[in-house]
Predict the structure.
Amino acid sequence: MTQTERVGSGAEPGEHRRQYLSPWMWVAVAGAVLQLIGLGSDFYAVGDGSAAERKGASLGIPHTSDLILISAVVAIALFALTAAGRSPVRGRATGLWIGVLGLLATLQLGYRMVAPPFIANAQGDQTLANLFSGDCQFYCSPAAAAAAKTQLLTGIWFGLAGCVLVTVAGFAHAVARRSADSPARPRVADVQAGRSPWLALAGAGALGAFLLGYTVFPFYTTPGRGGPVTWSGWLPTPHTSSLVGVLAVVVVWLVVAAVRNRSPLGPAALGATVALLGFVIASRILLRILAPPFGSGAAIEPPAYVALAGGILVIVAGLVLARSRALRRPVLAERT
């Protein structure tokens, strides 16, 4: 006897149960809205009196602002997917994702409230020593930041309130009794791409672009008082590093889902999406190669070009996946 079933259709024990949308999820969305309001407002006033310069989160504390934005987007996205009954993770995991990201954003923003990234006597020399102690642009002790003539504005308080609400709401949803019984119900496309070497190349390219460009490998070399200083792309290009990191995670997730025949996208849409994400990754890396944040005095190191090649590899792999008819097969498996 032959039985035909849809692979990855989500026909699992307990699928008939509805996903649980607790009141805490509404609180998380309210917190995410406060986070976004804060990001759109000024965080600091640097200087004295009427001459004080107002600074927003995006340029003032870029890594922190990116983390707050990620926290808000994840909270809103998981709320929307749960409300639609299509959350890809179980109820408890939903709360933990929201809570952990909210907690990280809360801690980072709290640190930036006691250690603002501006002090009056910054030396301005682009060296690692100064960036981590001299001008508090990235990290320094609160005592080292005491010389900063900085006033905290309403926007940063909105951001902090939003981060706290998201954190509390996420963990509260995770520990709710009904969340433990809330199943995962991801959308799975009717037609899957199947396993392909191009999927592996897309994942490898995305990981290579981030790991080689924005971790421990040198991206730039700049002159310093004590000699040349090498930089990873993480510190001097914060928004690009965050964007490449997030998109690399998305590409890897799509690849893993496709290999498991659980992709939410059909073959053509999957390939086009991967190619588009690769284009964004490669274009941002290329922009920072052509326009370094240090000006014309920076030398580009070989890992930067390899990272760019990783982004280009993602584009090529995505285009091949989108156009290859041989990979397309319906998600139907016969069991005898």
